[in-house]
Amino acid sequence: MRILLTILFIFFTSHLSAQIIKTIKYEGMLHISEPVALRMLEFDKGDDVDSRMINDAIKKYFKQGYFNDIWVELEEGDLTFYFKEKAIISQIDLKGWKESEDDIKETVIQIKKGSLYDEKRLEAAKKRIIAALNQEGKIDSVVEIQKEYLENGSIKVTFVVNEGEEISIEKLQYSGVIGVDSDDFDSVISNKEREFMGWFWGQNDGKMSLADLEYDNLRIRDFYMQNGYLDAKIEQPFVRVNFDNYTADMSYQIEEGEAYTITGVSIHQTKEVIDHEKIKEIITLKKGEIFNIKTFRDDSQKIKTLIADKSYAFVQVVPDLKKNKKDHTVEVVFKINPGTKVKIRNVVISGNTRTLDRVIRRELYLGPGDMYSLTDLKDSRNSLGRLGFFDGNTIEEKRINNSTMDLIVKVKEAPTGNIQIGGGYGSYGGILVSLGVNDRNIWGSGINVGVKAEKSETTQSYSFNISNNRLNDSDFSGNFSIFHSVYDYNDYTTLSDGISLGVGHRFSRHISGYMGYGFSQNDYEFSDDFNSTQYGDQSYFEEYSKSGITLSAKWDDTDDYYLPREGFTLSQSFEKSGLGGDADFFKSRTNFGKFIGLEDYIGFDAIFRYKARFNAVIDNGYVPLAEKFYMGGIGSVRGYESYSLSPTVVDTTATDGYRRIGGTQTFSNSLELSLPLVPQAKMRVVAFVDWGVISDSYTINLRTNTTARGGFGLGLEWFSPVGPIQLMFANPLLEEPGDKTSGFEFTMGQRF
Question: Residue 641: pLDDT band by 50, 70, 90 thresholds?
Fold first, then answer.
């Protein structure tokens, strides 16, 4: 090292005695400014400096970590420090393991571009990669570090990973299991015995996860406590690994004890802030039942929410289980320390680079000066999620003192303005494409503006709409739209031009209502082989105008607009036509959706959805054919072309001998299971089953009065940079000759 040579040079050259420093210069120093470097010295110009003082200065500079080498020259009082700085890491690559996951570079490698090259830091990153691979159950992994000096003097660092072998659990045994079924442990543990055809979806592949291994015994103990075994002891598993074939045998030693019965449930408040009887009303644990730790936790959370809604933000619910080991009974005591009431001092909004502060604040149920409420806090998070403007939100509670707190609202903007693309491919209809430009949050104002055009072999439509869910930041909403559409219903075509406008009101956090007016002028076009006499009533095919009002109400307590994981939606609308115009009918539309996040039950972010739709129309004088209902496609029954499912009438001039005329009642529903596919890319896979039925109660000469069809398949749900995209691959169920099926459809910008 030149440091040593410098020291020797200072000691053994002609400059053995102290010298008066005339000038101090720095060469090659970039990371420290000259004024800062001068302040770090223990001497200044004009001072007598000896070799020890220079040596101390070199050591102090070197400790900053920026330099590979430092040396000095001292000639006739002119002192010059020379520095050789460490190279800059300009590129960091990862090969052989999680190459496309950028967050790995932050959480595991922990070295950023622009960092100084440091061998110790690289070795530490290498060890972290190996540790992460070990946690995944991959043994004997090897990581090599490749360095490449670039033309600009910086360094490119590549971590080349050779993943080790995964350990497969071939045998898993439990000793001491008597009161429960050990097969039930598979529902809670992560490391399971490999099953036959373990590679198949739904089977246990037996791959060992070291990260979960230390917690599996605790999960088994929790399972026992859910069944009343409060004395259960489960030791860490004994693992025998065969490194020749990377298989393992595991065994657990279990002492069950006895199940405990509840002899009583009592409540103790350090300061009574709510009547004990009101607390007991929400408690699920009952005297005489087997104790369940999960129910106990749920009851504790209910109590916490109940009291926190009274402004006691820092309430503590401490469990106390008074066990009687002799007769295996337990008295459950909920010890409650409410603390003091808490007021909101300030609400700070952050992360909204586009959305205006007021748009966020009007969705919050807590503001400066309000008393704290846990339910209000949760409802505020969900309300922000339902906007669909943000890619997640959090509300942090910053404690100021025992009686005040600040709320820190953090949001991450999501793309709300996008080019909407939708379409599909049907066995008869060919390619369907729709294009639109829409912004649900234009200029960050919360106003929705959209222009859409749709074109296919069966559809052509153009529309413009504008709506505001919070007129002047109030609970009132308003909308206006104008459209032109052409729909080909297989046997005839309808042409419509119309306008609509309306006003809505939010009655509560989850309930809203709407009243609107619409007018449209509608015409028909027919194919050359069309024979309208087969339909009976010729008025079905006359040009008509429609003028009517719509009343609707909606409940929505979901937690997100595009991808809800909790809550349900229920909407009901009634349309009365006949207020002027030709058409005279009454329509009812009912929609329901239930969403359940399964992560708490199965350990990963799966979502169950159930959706149902019921529509009906009543003839009050004239129901045009185009005002009836049709099924098929996304939103009803996938696997069939849009609008292709309908009651039919006999028509000898038609190719297949009958025509579709729409239905007066239709019901369809869907079961969906959405699973994470590539979480980093916000990509999910969904499995679905659809079933629906459509019927007609009024039309004469019907060939089929009722049509029932189903569909099933898989789809891809992707939050792309330009908006949410759905790709659906479907197969029809209950297909009959003449049905028009569709194996693929896609949409963009719609709620999952």
Answer: confident
Arithmetic mean of pLDDT over the chain? 85
Residues 6+ apart with CB under 8 A from 578: 547, 548, 584, 585, 620, 621
Across 180-205, average pLDDT: 80
Tell me if 413 sits within 8 A of 353, measured CB to CB: yes
Angle at 219 between CA 214 and CA 222, to 5 degrees: 140
Angle at 55 between CA 49 and CA 56, to 5 degrees: 90
pLDDT tens-digit profile of 33-72?
888 888 888 888 888 888 888 888 888 888 887 787 888 8
Residues 6 or more apart whose CB falls under 8 angstroms from that of 191 comprise 169, 172, 208, 209, 212, 213, 216, 237, 250
Our measurement of the distance from residue 675's CA atom to the centroid of its chain's CA atoms, rounded to an integer in Å, reads: 11
- pLDDT category at 91 given cuts 50, 70, 90 is confident
Lowest mean pLDDT among 534-543, 568-577, 712-721: 534-543
Whether 8 has a pLDDT exceeding 70, the answer reads: no
**Residue 186 CA: distances (Å) to CA of 190, 198, 238:** 8, 14, 17
Would you put residue 206 in left (φ > 0), alpha (ψ -120 to 50) or beta?
left
746 pLDDT band (50/70/90 cuts)?
A: confident
Question: Which residues fall within 8 angstroms of residue 410, CB to CB, at 6 or more apart?
Answer: 350, 351, 393, 394, 395, 396
Domain 89-162 CATH assignment equals 3.10.20.310: yes
Distance CA 709, CA 739 (A): 10
Would you state the pLDDT for residue 165?
83
Measuring CA to CA, how many Å separate 24 from each of 71, 278, 478, 491, 714? 13, 79, 74, 94, 73
CATH 3.40.50.2300 assigned to 2-85: no
Residues in a beta bridge with 464: 451, 482
Which CATH code fits 261-337? 3.10.20.310
Report the C-alpha gap between 462 and 465 in whole angstroms.
10
Provide DSSP, 198-235: TTSTTS---B--HHHHHHHHHHHHHHHHHTTBTT-EEP
H helix or E strand, kind and range, residue 337: strand 329-337
Q: What pLDDT sits at residue 100?
A: 74
Which DSSP category does 35 fall into?
H
Instruction: Report the alpha-carbon distance of residue 636 to residue 354 in Å, rounded.
Output: 36
* Domains 89-162 and 417-748 belong to one CATH topology: no
Strands (E), 140-189: 142-149, 155-162, 165-166, 168-175
CATH class of 343-413: alpha beta
Report the C-alpha gap between 3 and 99 in whole angstroms: 41
According to CATH, what is the number of the domain 167-255?
3.10.20.310
What strand order describes the sheet that includes 67-75? 23-27, 78-85, 67-75
The residue among 233, 232, 234, 227 whose CA lies nearest residue 296 is 227
Task: Parse the chain into domains and list their residue ranges.
Answer: 2-85, 89-162, 167-255, 261-337, 343-413, 417-748
pLDDT value of residue 491: 60
- Note the pLDDT of residue 10: 45
pTM of the model: 0.67
Contact of 130 with 210, CB cutoff 8 Å = no
Angle at 161 between CA 160 and CA 166, to 5 degrees: 170
Whether 345 and 400 have beta carbons less than 8 Å apart is answered as yes
What are the φ/ψ torsions at residue 424 (nearest 5 degrees)?
180, 180
Count other C-beta atoms under 10 Å from residue 447's C-beta: 18
